[in-house]
Amino acid sequence: MTPDPEAHPATQFNQSPSTDIGHGARSLRIVLIGLRGSGKTTLGRLLAERLQTQFIDLDDVTVARSEQASVSALFHSIGEPAFRAAECAALEHVLSVASTSGAVIALGGGTPSTPEARALLQAARAAGTIRIILLEAPPETLGARLALDPGDRPLLAGGSFAEEAALLGARRLPIYRAMTDAAVSTSGDTAANVEVLARAAGE
């Protein structure tokens, strides 16, 4: 069953104090996109701490708006097309509610691959309410990270995490790059990555 877009109100988000992202752009949301393992969640949390704002993982929102316990359970329960629809509904909600103003938002790797999600992101970008930052790393780096911490998502392509990163990267990276305001390599150490990401976010 596709989750009800209205099932969970804006109160699911942390009510953090408003933050000054980019010297006065208090309503600007920072949206992180990239392949799985690129650091969207890890670096997103650290960036949110640095900017003194809330961090939102779209996977968590999508699951919270469903009747399932995890991304994998939801994905296997309803299938990929319905999962993408649920993900898109969660994205629309996150981008529209006032309580997410100024937040750092990490999208699932496949979120921008659907035309509906891209339309939402492009409209918000045109309206000046989001800044999209692409996080990138080589397939072997992504594969090594995911081998240590595979997370909750199922493999979508290839027989290993590195193969998946290479295969999905060939398909998705051109889409990502066409819609980004900035791209950040996350191949370095965490502290250096956060510094570069903060600059890309407009700090």
Main traits of this protein?
47% helix, 8 helices, disordered N terminus, single chain, alpha/beta, 5-stranded parallel sheet
Describe this structure in words.
It is a single chain. With 203 residues, the protein is α/β, with parallel strands linked by helices. The protein has one domain: P-loop containing nucleotide triphosphate hydrolases (Rossmann fold, 3-Layer(aba) Sandwich), CATH 3.40.50. It has 8 helices and 5 strands. It has a 5-stranded parallel sheet, sandwiched between helices. Helix 1 crosses helix 8 (190-200) and helix 2 (58-64) packs across helix 4 (80-96). The chain starts with 28 loop residues before the first strand and ends with a helix. Residues 1-25 have low confidence and may be disordered.
